[in-house]
Design goal:
- The structure holds two protein chains of two kinds.
- By secondary structure, chain A is α+β, with helices and mostly antiparallel strands.
- Chain A folds into two domains: 2-77, Beta-grasp domain (Ubiquitin-like (UB roll), Roll); 86-154, [2Fe-2S]-binding domain (DNA polymerase, domain 1, Orthogonal Bundle), CATH 1.10.150.120.
- Chain A has helices at residues 23-30, 86-93, 103-116, 122-128, 138-154; strands spanning 2-5, 8-11, 49-52, 55-58, 71-73, 166-167.
- A five-stranded mixed beta sheet of chain A has the order 2-1-5-3-4, with helices on one face.
- In chain A, a hairpin with a 2-residue loop joins strand 3 (49-52) and strand 4.
- The model of chain A is unreliable at 156-168 (pLDDT under 50).
- Chain B starts with a helix and ends in an 11-residue tail after the last helix.
- Chain B is an alpha+beta fold.
- In chain B, helix 18 packs parallel to helix 22 and helix 21 (671-690) crosses helix 22 (742-754).
- The model of chain B is unreliable at 1-19 (pLDDT under 50).
- Classes of the chains: A alpha+beta, B alpha+beta.
- Chains A and B meet through helix 1, helix 2, helix 3, helix 4 and helix 5 of A and helix 8, helix 10, helix 21 and strand 27 of B.
Chain lengths: 168, 765
């Protein structure tokens, strides 16, 4: 079997996988691409979110057979320190992550949202980001998505506001 | 036994050791120049700091686990401040197993002293003695623990002193080499210079510094700080936004196998006949390993496979004859009834252990105009860390190597040694990032399991991963609790007597038994976790008796973010709000009237009220129809937090719009991280307040995964503002204190809308 992952065709030995294996485990345990996380195994938490043909997909319940011939994008290809996605820039500006475990999935879900909707309002964000975070980064994620959306609309370097911290 | 005697003997097995040992000076926490191993021209200056000779970078021994709470950044800030380097010039290396890296502050804080008796600088003699003995004991034991919101408090003096000493030695070395007085040298971002021209980075002086006495070391004053107190960006975030951060579950070693655990469904249960044929026939399944009990775990089977997926398929295919526990089958409904019975009986008879007594509650009852009594309840809770429970182990050539997301590396090492049957010196523990801890990773059951499996895999490393269902059904749960709250009210409705009698399981002795059996005592001593958040209230009620009946219900219980405060704050702040209603007073004004001798609490409460636009405080913010405010104030882990929530009801469910959080956390190292932790504390507590409940029937936990153990999501997340009261006190805790107030604040706001008091958690049944 061969999959298109982050713009590359990646062969998967037949002995290593079977068509019913969820994409998550091919990524994590066969290809050692560990940026995509396991959280619940039942598509409830979104830690395993990747993009398949541009749509946010929960890879823990996505059989390999269903993604053959489709474009898979994972956190590893979202952006780098040198060339960040606007969401990653906003994520740093708002100092979003805490433990960080859910953040790959959050970013991939947010990137799929912004690709469809360049100016999401609160309700759009609520509807699109149904991932679970136990550290409580939701308020910062919301602000970071708006910052990234604004910077992508302006298509120049984001000028994110600092995170909300005030001292009385 | 008198309370005082009990508390001192409560120092457990240590008491016998105190004689003789007590007069020795406390064990140093600075360590020697040779404590840290060095490579590639690094030079150790003390147990915490080494300097890279080639570029002058500072290498800090990191003794605490990063689980989201920002300690890798905060501790590096302490060192960077005193050494005058930027955060970018501090590199972290995992601290070794030496005792100097143990936690002292966290264990001292576990003593059940009332805050009024333990105000820094004004401690009573008993408090001083108890704290001194516990600190000395903690130094002797050297238990490395990340928990109890104690990391910065514990490191505050130790790390700053280590860094300032290193700086003094480096300057001393430069002074000798350049033959210039130290007073004329200055440091900028790790580069020492003299006005006459010479300059050089720390690395050039490191070797000489190691042999140069530090002389008098003086810490910077708060006015001299340039980094402490600033919202410096966290150093761990780039890796957490590009997928490169390595959590325990991301460890990948050559030839690695994966194992999936399947516990006996009943807590404490076991298995009889096991048919492995179907499992072994599946592709990618390598073997089945039988697991006994490791540090409190339930008996289980583990299936080893080529990937998690293969192992999981195998685990599902096992045919097993499961057994219930031979004795002690438990159900939460029966436990809740028993707890309520215990609390009610003890309330009638002055029973339980009185963690705090003041005045005479009987006399107060006689003089009261009326009595007011309510019963509050809280359920068991699971932690549900985002990163499922996991551990990677390799057992080869008599050596054991463990990669673990753990809050207890020393206990993990000991558990690994026990499981492999080797000496502790044969075990190396690598601490990874933790995908959430919340107290779950203070237990090391999964480490013993992983090592046991690795014993069977012929030297190949194996990564044990628990499916989410195993995590929810085999956790160490936040104990259920019940409290009978009784107040004697005067003619104006003000409380002149307060009696709280709670019942619930003690966590600490159970945790020590399973995780550190060598330290377990023969009897349970009073455990602060049962009564914290009840016995230590700031309110000036002249007559109080705050007692707890410590139970042993048979459910494995553990530390859960904010521990006893997590439910006790709901009890106390719900009840205080009820008393305000009984007195027909504003909830904020009523609390303030009882806080005349607690100025720090009053300041935090006022700040929250003002920022929230609470009527009568600052600029009032009128609320739309159908929206109400609720307030709660709570001290925990040395910090005081007040929260005001604004919420409406949507389909009978509370919908939070805004949370205003005010806090006095002592000196603030990084206000951005404090704000993050307050936000996180609020949302963690909100999930529990609205939905959190673990039900147990015949020892089997009914909830299994997020669909039936729901937590709040983006759509339910309010805006959260954090406001900090300036303080010059030493740093208090930050990771947990944001959690306790949210449940009562929500319940108190719902009362405004519905007229109904909610006295049981979760609020949405």
């Amino acid at each position: 079997m061969e999959l298109s992952i982050n713009g590359q065709m990646r062969p998967l030995a037949d002995a290593a996988v079977d068509p019913g294996m969820p994409l998550l485990w091919a990524l994590r345990d066969v290809l050692n691409m560990t940026g995509t996380k396991f959280g619940c195994g039942v598509a409830a938490c979104g830690a395993c979110t990747v993009q398949v043909d541009g749509a946010a997909v929960r890879s823990c319940v996505t059989p390999l057979a269903s993604v053959a011939g489709k474009r898979i994008v994972t956190i590893e290809a979202l952006g780098s320190a040198a060339q960040p996605h606007p969401l990653q820039t906003a994520w740093l500006a708002h100092q979003v992550p805490q433990c960080g475990y859910c953040q790959s999935g959050m970013l991939m879900a947010a990137a799929a949202l912004l690709a469809k909707n360049p100016n999401p309002n609160d309700a759009d964000i609520d509807a699109a980001i149904t991932n679970i975070c136990r550290c409580g980064t939701y308020p910062r994620i919301r602000e970071a998505i708006k910052t990234a959306a604004a910077s992508m609309r302006a298509s120049n370097a984001p000028a994110a506001k600092p995170a909300v911290v005030r001292r009385a | 036994m008198k309370r005082r005697t009990l508390i001192l003997s409560g120092l457990g097995t240590a008491t016998a050791l105190v004689v003789g040992w007590g007069v020795m000076p406390p064990r140093s926490r600075q360590g020697g120049a040779d404590t840290m191993p060095v490579v590639n021209g690094e030079v150790g200056l003390n147990g915490w700091i080494k300097i890279a000779a080639e570029d002058g970078h500072v290498i800090l021994a990191m003794n605490r686990s990063e689980m989201g709470q920002g300690v890798h950044t905060a501790l590096a800030m302490l060192v960077a401040e005193e050494l005058d380097v930027s955060l970018a010039k501090v590199r972290l290396v995992q601290a070794g197993p030496e005792k100097l890296y143990g936690n002292v502050a966290g264990f001292v804080a576990s003593l059940p002293f009332h805050p009024a008796d333990s105000e820094p600088g004004h401690e009573t003699r008993v408090v001083k003695t108890g704290q001194w003995v516990m600190a000395k004991l903690a130094r002797e034991l050297g238990i490395s623990m990340t928990g109890g919101s104690s990391t910065v408090a514990d490191a505050w003096d130790v790390l700053r002193l280590a860094a300032a000493t290193a700086r003094a030695q480096l300057l001393g070395a430069a002074s000798l080499e350049w033959k210039q007085p130290i007073a004329e040298l200055s440091v900028k971002n790790g580069v020492i210079s003299h006005p006459s021209g010479p300059q050089g980075h720390y690395g050039l002086f490191a070797k000489a510094a190691a042999a140069t006495p530090a002389g008098d070391v003086i810490l910077k004053t708060a006015k001299q700080w340039t980094l402490i107190g600033t919202p410096a960006p966290r150093t761990d975030l780039q890796a957490k936004i590009d997928g490169t951060a390595q959590f325990g579950i991301d460890v990948r070693l050559p030839d690695q196998l994966y194992a999936v655990v399947r516990h006996a469904p009943a807590i404490g249960g076991s298995y009889g006949a096991v048919d492995v044929d179907a499992a072994m026939k599946l592709p990618g399944v390598e073997r089945v390993v039988r697991l006994g009990t490791y540090a409190g775990s339930t008996d289980a089977l583990a299936v080893v496979g080529k990937t998690y997926w293969h192992a999981k398929q195998g685990a599902q295919a096992l045919q097993v004859e499961w057994h219930a526990p031979p004795i002690g089958v438990v159900s939460s409904a029966a436990i809740n009834q028993a707890l309520e019975r215990s609390a009610r009986e003890a309330a009638k008879s002055e029973g339980g252990f009185a963690f705090y007594s003041r005045g005479d509650v009987k006399e107060a009852a006689k003089n009261a105009a009326r009595q007011f009594e309510q019963v509050y309840r809280a359920p068991y809770l699971a932690h549900a860390t985002m990163e499922p429970i996991n551990c990677t182990a390799r057992v080869a050539d008599g050596k054991v190597e463990v990669w673990a997301p753990t809050q207890m590396p020393g206990a993990a090492r000991a558990a690994a040694a026990r499981a492999a049957g080797v000496s502790i010196e044969a075990v190396t523990v690598h601490v990874t990032y933790l995908g959430g801890g919340f107290g779950r990773r203070l237990d090391v059951d999964f480490v013993g399991q992983a090592v046991r499996i690795a014993v069977e895999t012929g030297g190949r490393p194996v990564q044990l991963v628990w499916p989410r269902e195993e995590d929810i059904t085999h956790d160490f749960y936040r104990p259920a609790g019940v409290a009978v709250m009784q107040a004697s009210l005067d003619a104006q409705g003000l409380p002149i007597g307060l009696t709280i009698t709670s019942a619930g399981d003690a966590i600490t002795p159970r945790w020590i038994e399973r995780g550190m059996p060598a330290l377990a005592g023969p009897i349970d001593t009073p455990d602060k976790t049962t009564s914290e958040g009840l016995f230590d209230l700031p309110y000036g009620v002249p007559n109080q008796r705050i007692a707890n009946v410590a139970t042993r219900s048979g459910v494995p219980v553990g530390f859960w973010r904010s521990v006893g405060h997590s439910h006790n704050a709901f009890f106390s702040e719900g009840f205080i709000d009820e008393l305000a209603s009984e007195a027909k007073q504003d909830p904020v004004a009523f609390r303030l009237a009882l806080l005349k001798d607690a100025p720090r609490h009053a300041a935090v409460l006022k700040l929250a009220a003002e920022k929230a636009g609470w009527p009568g405080f600052g600029q009032e913010r009128p609320l739309p129809a159908g929206v109400a405010r609720g307030v709660a104030l709570h001290e925990s882990f040395g910090s005081i937090v007040a929260q005001v929530v604004e919420l409406s009801l949507e389909g009978g469910k509370p919908k939070l719009r805004r949370v205003v959080c005010a806090a006095d956390v002592g000196t603030v190292v990084n206000p951005m991280i404090v704000a993050q932790q307050m936000e996180g504390g609020v949302l963690f507590g909100l999930s529990a307040a609205l939905y959190g409940r673990i039900d147990i029937v015949d020892s089997v936990v009914r909830q299994t995964n997020f669909p039936n153990y729901p937590v709040v999501k983006m759509s339910e997340s309010p805006r959260i503002e954090t406001w900090l009261v300036p303080s010059t006190r030493p740093p208090g805790g930050v990771g947990e204190p944001g959690t306790p107030p949210i449940a009562p604040a929500v319940a108190n706001a719902m009362f405004v809308l519905t007229g109904k008091r909610m006295r049981s958690l979760p609020l949405i049944a």
